[in-house]
Structures are given as C-alpha cells and as structure tokens.
Write a structure and sequence with these properties.
With 375 residues, this protein is of the alpha+beta class. Helix content is 29%, strand content 14%.
Length: 375
C-alpha cells in the first residue's frame, strides 16, 4: 500500500535519501500524477499484483512498481517492460529470495528481446552494456529499486552482499536481432517472433571478450572458453548458466562458417568443462557433502555450465575490432536459473491473483513444446 506524504519541494531529494529509498543516486520524486501516468501506460489498476515471493509473503502491486519506476527516471512507455521484468525477477525459478540476499551480491541481468525494445528506444548496439541510454538504464534501475524498497533487499538488512558489483545499479540491454538463419533469444526460448520478452538472470559483472585477429570460428569460440573456465568464478565446476553476448564481427564469423546457434552452445558447454587438477591448481577445494557437491565425470572433468541449454546466446553491440562479452551466473543452476516473461500486450490483462497474491505463471503464453525446433 502506498501513501502520500508532503515534502518541501526544495529538499525532496534529500528527504528521499534520508528515508533510504534510493540506490545512492538521486531519484525522481514519485508524485501521484507521475505514478498514475505509469499505471495508465501499463493499463493496470493500482492494486493489481505483478509478482509475489511466496516464501516471504510479499507481493508487488502495480502501484508500488510504478512509484519505483518513476523514481528510477523511467518514461511511462517503459512500464510494460518493467512489469515483465519484475515478473521474471519474482519467478520461483530465479529464486529472488536467495539471489537478493546472498553474500555473492549478484546483479539482476535483464535482456529484452523483441520489437518493443526498439520502439521504446532501448540500445542494442554500441555501448549496449554501458551507460548513456535512458531506457536501458532506468528499466534495470527500476527493478533494483523495487528489490530494495518493496522486497527489502537493502544493505544492512536483507542484502548481505560481501562486495556486490556495479550491475546492481542496472544491468539491462536489448538484443540486436541476429541474421538468418539464427533466431533471436525469444524464439530460442519458445516464444513467438512478434513477442517482446524479458529474460532475467542473477549474474556477476560482464567480462569483455577480445579476439581481434582470429577470423576462425572455432578460434573465436575457444577465446570464449578461456573466459568461461575460470576457477575463481563460483559456479565453475558446479554447473551454472551464462549469457554469451556476440558482437557483430564474432557473430558474423560464426554465421559465415555455417555454425548454428545449437552448434555454438554445445561447443561452449562441452569445451568449458574443467579438470579437477586445474581446479585444485587454482587453490579451489572441491565441495563434498554440501548443497554444491562437485563430482567429476568419468574423465575427471567438471562442468562450467550444466548443459548447452544453460548458455543464453545473444547478439548485441556495435562494430569494432572484434569485441564480445561473457556474463556468468553468480551461482550454480541448481539454486537459481534464468527466467523469462513476455511483455503484456495492449488490452491484455494480468492474471487475477486476488488479495493474497500469487506466483504468476505466464508459461502458457509460450509456444507449445511440440512446435519448437532447436535454435
């Protein structure tokens, strides 16, 4: 439930800082008029539930989501994407109860795939993972402010981050549509071409992958493998997930060589396995008898990702010398996995959760499994 408070216009930003409602940066005051504009853009009533964390008994209403979207500096036309992102954040698959409180301090990485991303001005090209684009920055920031202000993930309270990472301010970007026959991420996940989908994953910071001179497809992928097989990353050896962001030069080389997306994902999953010897040489002690048991296969190898399905393959970024990026999950996939939500279309209603809230299941909007083909 929101309430209206009267603040001195000259000191409103300081008052919001004092109440702990910011992420450390100034916010836009969430006036009733601004909040209402968000709700109108999302075609939502104030008390409609956009997501719930059942284990905490906490629901996020459209009004609370709208207030935090205003504070983040978002435009009303971004709000349908923010609502979908919040649904993905609170999907039980992602396990926000753990990811928002862990000492690992992950960011909530958001990937927007579909026509609405371009329509609202999101950046999928040069500096897509960086600063300078209002939609990218404020959509991700709105989700983080909801995590703080509604779900209670504040430093010194439920957020136990030992270090955190800069993506906790915002880590949100749009997919650049790949060239045929490759498919966009949303289609790889079973949605329709005309859908706009938000994918969320709890991640560490992005790592740039540089390969400027090698035009060989396998050579490029082996550079990615070297970025993936890093024992210092917590999921390595236990089986996590990851986002592989292919820049134009690297994606083009793979396409020209005839590699399918399935080929790429299978190669990366297979070749990124790491030996027990290499783990131990890096000072890592294999966990036994814990939630993160590490058991090598018959060849003495351990997984970096659980399977090829745990490699999210995305095209983004602008032309350059040959840059891509690798974004690892912060934890093994057994405790937190990527989730997705389709952005609500105009005139479409959210599921009715009633006064107690519910875990919204939008998988019914996906393509039936029998109709899917491997990417």
């Amino acid at each position: 439930m929101t309430q209206t408070i009267d603040l001195d216009a000259e000191n409103v930003e300081e008052a919001l800082f004092e109440r702990g409602w910011t992420d450390g940066l100034p916010v836009v005051p969430p006036t009733p008029e601004r909040v209402q504009a968000m709700l109108v853009a999302g075609e939502l009533e104030p008390d409609e539930v956009v997501g719930t964390i059942a284990s905490r008994g906490i629901s996020v209403t459209a009004e609370l989501a709208a207030a935090n979207a205003v504070m983040a500096g978002a435009k009303p036309e971004y709000f349908p994407v923010i609502v979908a992102a919040l649904g993905a954040l609170m999907d039980p698959t992602l396990n926000a109860h753990m990811t928002l409180t862990s000492t690992g301090g992950p960011a909530t990485c958001l990937i927007v795939s579909g026509p609405m991303a371009a329509a609202i001005g999101m950046n999928a090209r040069h500096n897509a993972l960086g600063s300078g684009n209002r939609a990218n920055a404020t959509i991700g920031r709105a989700v983080r402010l909801v995590a703080m202000n509604v779900l209670g993930a504040r430093i010194g309270k439920l957020d136990a981050s030992s270090l955190g990472n800069p993506g906790k301010y915002t880590l949100c970007f749009a997919e650049s549509e790949p060239k045929a026959p490759w498919e966009p991420l949303r289609v790889q996940l079973g949605y329709h071409e005309e859908d706009t989908v938000v994918v969320a994953l709890a991640t560490e910071s992005p790592r740039q992958v540089a390969n400027h001179l090698n035009g060989d497809a396998e050579g490029i992928l082996r550079t990615f493998v070297s970025a993936m097989r890093v024992p210092a990353n917590f999921p390595v050896g236990k089986g996590g997930q990851c986002v592989v962001v292919l820049g134009p030069e690297h994606a083009g080389a793979l396409l020209e060589a005839g590699w399918s997306q399935l080929d790429v994902r299978r190669f990366l999953a297979r070749e990124s396995r790491i030996s027990v010897r290499d783990m131990e040489a890096a000072g890592q002690i294999l966990e036994k008898g814990s939630a993160f048991e590490t058991t090598p296969d018959a060849a003495g190898m351990l997984p970096t990702v659980e399977s090829f399905e745990d490699v999210l393959l995305v095209t983004a970024g602008g032309e350059g010398a040959g840059w891509s990026a690798y974004i690892p999950s912060f934890s093994p996939a057994k405790v937190s996995r990527a989730s997705s939500r389709r952005v609500k279309r105009p005139g479409e209603a959210l599921p009715d959760c009633g006064p107690e809230g519910c875990e919204i299941d939008w998988t019914r909007f996906q393509m039936p499994a029998a109709e899917r083909t491997p990417a």
